[in-house]
Amino acid sequence: MEVGIPYEIHHYRDSYLSEVAMHHHDFYEIYFFLSGKVSYRVENRTYPLQPGDILLISPLELHQPIIAKEKHSYERIVLWVSKSCIDRLSRPDCVLDRCFDIYEPEYTNLLRVDAITRQRISNIMELLHQETYGDAFGSQVASEAALTQLLIELNRQMFYSRSRGRRYEALDPSEAVISKVLSYINENAGDDISLDDLAEQFYISKYHLSREFKRLVGTSPYRYIIQKRLIMAKQLLLAGANPTDAYCHCGFGDYSNFYRAFKAEYGIGPKEFAKEIQKE
User: Fold this and answer.
1) What is the pLDDT of residues 124-154, one digit of tens each?
2) Strand, helix or coil at 12?
C-alpha cells in the first residue's frame, strides 16, 4: 500500500506461490483465510490455519506465510489499513486499533470465531470490497461505514477471545526462551546487541540460540535485529522525524550503514522516503 492511501482490500486466489520472506508493513493487516494448506508465522508464534481464521497483524510485527509445497487452492482476503485511517474513524471511548496492540494482556494474532460470527465478518468484508471498488452513489461513505463496522466487530471478538485465554499457536519447547530473547531485542534494539551478548544474557549456547531462533522465527538473530531497527526508523520517519534523528535512535553504527540497510530493505533511501511522506 502506498504512503497516503488509507486502506486497500484484495481477494486473492492462487494455486501455487513461491516462498514469501519474513517481512513487515507500515500499516495494519487483517488477513481472512478462506482455503489452502498454510501456517502463518508472526514473530516467534506459528499459527496452523483453518478456513475462516482471521489474523490481525500490527506494523511492528514481522510475519511470513508458510505455504505447503503441494499445490492447493490458496484463497484469502487481505485488508491493509493505515494508522491515520483508523485514528480518523476512532473516538476517545472507541479506539479501533486496540485489537492490534501487542502490549495487551493475552495478546494473540489469531481470531477463531463461530460460524455465525464468521459469516457476519465475511459479509462485511465482501461489502467493503464491493463499495471500495464500486462507483455507485455514496460508495465512499458506504465503504468507510463498512470499514468502521468491521473494526468494531474485530475488536469485540478479539476482546472476548483474549478474555477467555483462547490461543491457537503451535507450542514448542524452545518458545519460552526465544520469546524472552525477542522481548529483549525489542526493548533494546537501539543498543549494541550481538549474538554473544544474547547467549550470555540467557545462559544458552550461541549456536543453539542461533539454530532455535532461525527455526522458530524464520530468520537469524542478526537479520531480525536489523529488521527491527529499520522498522523503528521507518515509524519515526512516518511520524515526521528527519533521517538523521531516526538513525541516531535506531542502533546503527553510522549513517552509511543505516542508508545501505534502509535502501536494501525498502528500495529507497531514508531521505527520499522522508520527502515522499512530506509530499503526501
Assistant:
1) 999 999 999 999 999 999 999 999 999 999 9
2) strand
